[in-house]
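Revision sheet: structure tokens.
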Amino acid sequence: MSVLVCVTGRNNDKLMAKLNEALPDVKIELWPHCEDLNRVQFVLAWNAPDELWAQLPNLKVVQSYGAGVDGIALDKLKPDVSVARIVDEQLSADMAEYVLSHVLANKLRHREYATNQGHRNWKPRRAKKGNEVGILGLGELGRVTAELLGHHGFSIRGWSRTQKCISNVACYAGEAQLEAFLSGIDYLVCLLPLTQQTKGILNAELFSQVPPNCVLINVARGQHLVEADLLVALDNNELEAAVLDVFSTEPLSESHPFWSHPKVTVTPHVAAVTNMDTVVAQIAANARACLGNNPLENRVDLGQGY
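Predicted:
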């Protein structure tokens, strides 16, 4: 068996060094340099080219390099190929802290005061009253984020595809309950997995259902957001502001209007950065599981896409 690494758009020198150290008895190759594609049974992938999958007749396992699997063309895989993803407990804590920091920054008017400082404008104001946070997505990231926000006195409601039951969270589920979930929220946090059903969910129709004082925080995937719809909603005062950490195309182009929009905060996909050692340990464990025909860690339900 050989392991093929096909993680595009980044330098993989450190990753390859750590994988070779963790799997000294396994042949590890970096796409597109592979001696024999017939020997590849395990692929570590993110944004791999679609044409790769048809060239791997003995593929058994695809390991996502991320917490999601939207960087893998699942429809190109054979039915008997298993897919796994990365789960990092620290990632959940980091994500929750990121969301909390931006909710508090808006509530306490940090962006407003930063603008006032630039104009030497002394204008003290009370903190904003809004305290209702709605979280789209109640998986591990959503649950931990809800818990941290709740500890800081925020009222939490959450929405998911199927019904969940989480302590101190008002849980909504399915299309029929989405409008009720959106009604009256002050902050909308997107932590959904990216699937065909959730792609473009942050759109004009959704923005029309939230109060005009609502702040959008997208820390899931850029493809959840219809960017043009957000700009219109902000310009028409249908939303108060947006905090964006993820984008359809990364890095964000220098000419993109998000950079200069007065109601948009841009961060460079840093809400939760996975620890390399954690990633390598899980990849190595699943590579050995593949080699020994044993169960995988964090296997994905391909029917649901996560």
